[in-house]
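Sample pair:
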Amino acid sequence: MLLEVAGVVKRYGGRGVPANDGVNLTVEAGQVYGLLGHNGAGKTTLVNQIVGLLRPDRGSIRIDGRDVVADPGFARRACSIQPQSQIPIDGLTPRQAIETLGRLRGGDREAVRMRATRLIEALDLGEWRDTDGARLSGGVKRLVSFCMAAVEPGKLVILDEPTNDVDPVRRRLLWSQVRSLADEGSAVLLVTHNVIEAERSVDRLAILDHGRVLTEGTPAELKAGIADELRLELVLDPDADTIETPQFAGPHTVVGNRIVATVPTRLAGEAAIWARDLRRTGRIEEFSLAPATLEDAYVALVGSTAARATSTAVNSEEEIDVRAA
């Protein structure tokens, strides 16, 4: 096992609601492992402990069998990380920034140069390779940040919200490179709140909420609990009145002009007739009825947990945006 996290607890200030509360997870070499949760769920706090920037109050963290709580320097050598925040590269071109990180991590000069070139080409960044970092868009900077983590990858590669600001075409290219990192032997810890991308990209994942791991498994295992449900998605007409979802629809979310709900498979016909009537009367622009997704499982699990967590007032008031990118 490449990464082993056991019983990790972290409280800021030594009291109050823990940011991490008994977290357990394991990641194997060659695996893309998703750490999924809304903003404030404790994901980045856990990452900072894995890489030795924070010390847990309790619990253990091992990378390749080494205790990184006792030896945080080893953690920083063993991990390469794309942080959530943008890395400042003003005054450097993407090629210079990527090659510099590769050399700082101990890579051979020529090997680093060749891998930097391959990454730039694979992510379609060629037109910006020699552009000053101050002139790059947020999405291009994000891709350069990924290349800086991947050019001389550690045994554990940590990607914290790697696709923020990245356009849809290059997102697909990026996910291909994430898969390549795992195929080449690294363990990849993908930290995200984008449920849709997690389902497409990870081998296993853990759902983190209020500092706790609620569940863990493959995307298929996590969806097993809603196997008899369908996902109903409505695209609202901007000028239509508010739509009340019928009783047969389960908990729903509203994201922009879309309503997403789940319905039992046995009521698919009734749901389709109801949605067709809405479209015929001009209240919605379109609808879809399809098998439930990991997003639906996430909403069902985290939503019900949040409703019960009345004692954690600060965290429970945080809005969960399951479609944010």
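The two ends are 30 Å apart (CA to CA).
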